[in-house]
Write a structure and sequence with these properties.
Blueprint lengths: L1 E6 L2 E3 L5 E9 L2 E11 L6 E7 L4 E3 L7 E6 L4 E6 L8 E11 L5 E5 L3 E5 L2
Parallel strand pairs: 2-11
Antiparallel strand pairs: 1-3, 3-8, 4-5, 4-9, 5-6, 7-8, 9-10, 9-11
């Protein structure tokens, strides 16, 4: 079992910055990829950014150049640095981890509980 704990959300003014963190805990697994998704009421959850175990990244077009995803493998933690935030970035942000169980080699995915990001003046 893997637990994901997110932090760093909050209220920020347009043009401001926030840094989200997501720490994975548990044992008996290897993390393959971690990512950030976001969701607003009435809409599907969408990918924001994802980082693989080799450090390769992908970003949604809407956040390219403004958001940066990074990870600390030693801490099993992924970060999302967000700058130049605007109202359209307002959403609940969820962390996701794709892992492989060390014993069975089966793949699993886990979600965090979500953290609210509100961009408003």
């Amino acid at each position: 079992q893997v637990q994901l704990v997110e932090s760093g959300g909050g209220l920020v003014q347009p043009g401001g910055s926030l840094r989200l963190s997501c720490a994975a805990s548990g044992s008996g697994f290897s993390i393959n990829a971690m990512g950030w998704y976001r969701q607003v009421p009435g809409k599907q959850r969408e990918l924001v950014a994802r980082i693989s175990s080799d450090g390769s990244t992908i970003y949604a077009d809407s956040v390219k150049g403004r958001f940066t995803i990074s990870r600390d493998n030693a801490k099993n933690t992924v970060y999302l640095q967000m700058i130049s935030l605007n109202a359209e970035d307002t959403a609940v942000y969820f962390c996701k981890a794709i892992v492989t169980a060390d014993d069975s080699k089966r793949g699993y995915q886990y979600w965090g509980q979500g953290t609210q990001v509100t961009v408003s003046s």
